[in-house]
Amino acid sequence: MLSYLLLILLLLSSAAYYLGRNRAFRVAGNHIRNLHSLPSFYGSYTALWCGLPALIVITVWAVLQPGIILELVVAGLPPELRELPPDRLGLVLNDIKNLVSGNIVSGAPDPTILAAAEHYRNLQLTGHVCLWIVALLLATAGIVHSWRAISPKLRARNRVERVVTLLLIVSSTVAIFTTIGIVLSVLFESIRFFHKVPLTDFLLGLQWSPQTAIRADQIGSSGAFGMVPLFAGTLLISGIAMLVAVPIGLMSALYLSEYASPKFRATAKPLLEILAGIPTVVYGFFAALTVAPLIRDTGTALGLQVASESALAAGLVMGIMIIPFVSSLSDDVINAVPQSMRDGSYALGATKSETIKRVLLPAALPGIVGSILLAVSRAIGETMIVVMAAGLSANLTANPLQAVTTVTVQIVTLLTGDQEFDSAKTLAAFALGLMLFIVTLILNIIALHVVRKYREQYE
Amino acid sequence: MNKSDDSAATPPRRDIKTLVNAGLKRRHAAERRFRWYGLTAISLGLTFVVLMFANIIGKGYPAFWQTYIELPITFDAAVIDPTGTRDPETLANADYAALIRASLRGLFPQVEGRRDLRALYGLISSNAPHRLRGEILADPALIGTTQPVQVLASAEVDTLVKGNIDRTLDESLRSISDQEIAWIDRLTADGRLTKRFNTILFSNGDSREPEQAGIRGALMGSFYTLLITFLLSFPIGVATAVYLEEFAPKNRWTDLIEVNINNLAAVPSIVFGLLGLAVFINFFGLPRSAPLVGGLVLSLMTLPVIIIAGRAALTSVPPSIREAALGMGASKLQMVSHHVLPLAMPGMLTGSIIGMARALGESAPLLMIGMVAFIVDVPRGFTDPATVLPVQIYLWADLPERAFVERTSAAIMVLLGFMILMNGLAIVLRKRFERRW
Q: CB within 10 Å: which end of chain A, N or C, has fewer?
């Protein structure tokens, strides 16, 4: 429905462009020099008048319509339904919506609900028809208005350019709105969560079992929301990943920038960066089906007790994923060290490795630390590998052969599958998301600060 | 006195030389060792690349072939069309499974007993009757004749034929019994088993039966999601890059925008999923599991990538171009849209394609907005419930059947194929249009 309207609007606007341009030629008596702006600007002016107001109305309408219709439907319900508690009313409304979209409804619908669904459908239809009429009227009115306004004196270019600049500014604020959206969405739900579970319990609790009783008479599911075991698990897996990624990534960066011939570098570097392009779900599959069984079998052969979803498997594979991240970031840092420092060291008779160890690494250290911090924040936020290869039970352990769970795994398990929206269980996911956001944000800010400070030293 | 002081500070030349020479061997060994560490690190990294590809291709390539069983089917008029009217309605509702059962009984007359018979019928995939119905509806003249028909074998048969079931294992440890193996060997000996290219993988949606499961639904879901992502993130990203690079004054506001963009690029993807769930689904009431919401979330994620690439492309256009345009009397917007933007476009497109490739492989935020549902139908629009290729891989990876492992790897191969294609396109674009000023 809506896409047809947009398509028609697009066609109308392009027609308006030609109308406006021709009109400009006409009012100028076919001599462009009489016009203030180029004819194409008069065309764009008309097209903007045609498309923009209608587009704004459509957007606002599309956002508001469902809410308004729902209000009207609720107002039209018989009073005994209207006075239901909010959650029951929500169920009734869900039934109505399902009826409207032609889905299967639970049980036989009773006549009041059928009537409400019919009401809903009528309102929706009326809304759509109104929207079409309003939007098309606005578009035509825009064409007529600008058509009348076009005269040789009209400063079309300046007006069009002002609108375009405004559009550019609006686009650039999307990034800000995204950040605000993220912060608000996780913050609001987290605040609701902290009303149910005290903040200190969440931050300092050593137990995590997010099962809450649905009915008061249920036993054994009071729920514990302590995030310490989750962060410990996250840190354990990230730590293993860094143990793999940092030596391999750093040494390959050093070799590629200091030892390798240009030809070797040109082939090895992109090949290594393939690792960064592989989707994480592929790493997860690799970890769960190849690496984890391998580690378990090796462990059993050595007489060790290895969980089938050990932290080691997830950490190792995550480390592989992060190698190119570490290596390309440290490569940049190493290349930023001035050649004169290397030359000075060589002139004193140092070998290459001595130069690297005593001159290059100390000089590049802040940058390398920054890039490792960025890699850590990446590892903490990584989801698919741990969802597929790490466990679900929250163990507070430092043994890499045991199964641990992570913050991201818990967010995914709490929010996929059946969910009731107001329970502490689902809200806990948002609280975890908030913590994850804060931790990665702090890590990134520190890392960027360190890297930038270091860069200024040599520029 | 003076003389001895001097000699203590600077020992004779010979001494330095011997000192250096004495340490030289050790230092050169350290040098070689260090070099060797570096080479080991790189070869380890490259080994991982090769291992992963070998592992996935090795597991996945058999999934491109599928076992079919040729059965002599007698299209018995008494079963299909008892009234003899050739009414399409009757033909469509006939019991085609009975024809297959009859054919199997004809091939193995010695099998008796309900349980054994059910095991025998289990060799054939449950979609075989649909196939027979299709053939009859297309050509009713077949009724009454006996035709050899290639029907899809069940996943167990397929797995055994591909050699993925260890015959030497004890019967209770296998998913297939000795008796069934004997039947399959009979069929193989009769030349009734054929392996054909697996078109089902590309033409079907998801299914609980491995032999009928395909990635078409996921591919279409990915297509719709990426279309939305591109339509939103490319124009907005280019506009933002142009504004920040060409128009924006240096002030606190633009600094804020820049800090925001850099931070967004590093926010974990799952947090974007939370944003999508809270804002698009719970607040705006958009449908769950829809490519529309997936595309919105992914475009917010891709935006920083496109903006950063776009700004880099804009800065690489030399200022002389801008000055020349302004000198000829162009307005600032004309200068940008007629001269700077066309020159920066290849770089922007390259960055966008790489961003889109990343969005194609992204799955974590889509789990949050309900794109993990089991969806059989191929989506036909932006608001139909759908899943995407990486999420399909995630779903299949959880299933225990061996045949699904194979299909998961095949789906990964398709996904990686698309990613290689997109990145290759980006490289070609860069090579083709790269300009050094």
A: C
ipTM of model over 0.95:
no
Looking at residue B285, its pLDDT comes to: 77
Class of residue A23 by CB neighbours under 10 A (exposed 0-12, middle 13-18, buried 19+): buried
DSSP A224: E
CB-defined contacts A:B, below 8 A: 250
Cβ–Cβ under 8 Å, residues A433 and B368: no
Contact B407, B213 (CB under 8 A): yes
Kindly list the residues from chain A whose CB atom is less than 8 angstroms away from the CB atom of residue B282.
421
The secondary element (H helix, E strand) that includes residue A65 is helix A39-76
Q: Are B179 and B123 in contact (CB under 8 A)?
A: no
Cα dist from B356 to A107, A303, B302, B384, whole Å: 44, 47, 7, 22
Contacts of B372 in chain A (CB under 8 A): 416
Eight-state DSSP code of residue A78:
-
Domain extent listing, chain B:
2-61, 63-206, 216-433
Contacts of B26 in chain A (CB under 8 A): none
The helix (H) or strand (E) run that includes residue A126 is helix A111-149
Average of per-residue pLDDT across B316-322: 93
Distance CA A51, CA A298 (A): 66
Mean pLDDT (chain B) is: 87
Residue A167: strand, helix, or coil:
helix
Query: In Å, what is the CA distance from A405 to each residue of A237, A286, A411?
Result: 9, 18, 11
For A326-335, write each residue's pLDDT tens digit: 998 888 888 8
CB contact B380 to A (< 8 Å): no
Q: Which residues of B touch A157 (CB under 8 A)?
A: 331
A279-291 pLDDT tens trace:
999 999 999 999 9
Residue of chain A whose alpha carbon sits nearest to that of B302: A175
Overall CATH class of domain B216-433: mainly alpha
* CB–CB contact B45 A327 (8 Å): yes
Our CA-based measurement puts residue B48 at a distance from the nearest CA of chain A, in whole angstroms, of 7
User: pLDDT > 70: what percent of chain B?
Assistant: 97
Which residue in A176, A248, A277 is closest to B256 by CB distance? A176
CATH superfamily of domain region A224-458: MetI-like (1.10.3720.10)
Distance (Å, whole) CA A247 – CA B41: 8
Domain boundaries, chain A: 2-172, 224-458
Residue B268 pLDDT level (bands cut at 50, 70, 90): very high
Mean pLDDT of A92-99: 75
Write down the pLDDT at residue B10: 60
Instruction: Kindly identify which residue of chain A lies nearest to residue B335, measuring between CA atoms.
Output: A161
Residues B71 and B151: beta-carbon distance below 8 Å? yes
**Rounded distance, CA B213 to CA B204, Å?**
6
Q: What is the pLDDT of residue B3?
A: 47
Residue B429 scores a pLDDT above 60:
yes
pLDDT of residue A449: 84
Quote the tokens at residue B122.
Answer: 């289990």
- Angstrom distance (rounded) from CA A82 to CA A113: 12
**Contact state of B28 with A440 under an 8 Å Cβ cutoff:** no
Contacts of A173 in chain B (CB under 8 A): 257
Q: Is the CB of residue A192 less than 8 Å away from at least one CB of chain B?
A: no
Q: Which of A189, A286, A388 has the CB atom closest to B394's CB atom? A: A388
**Total-model pTM:** 0.88
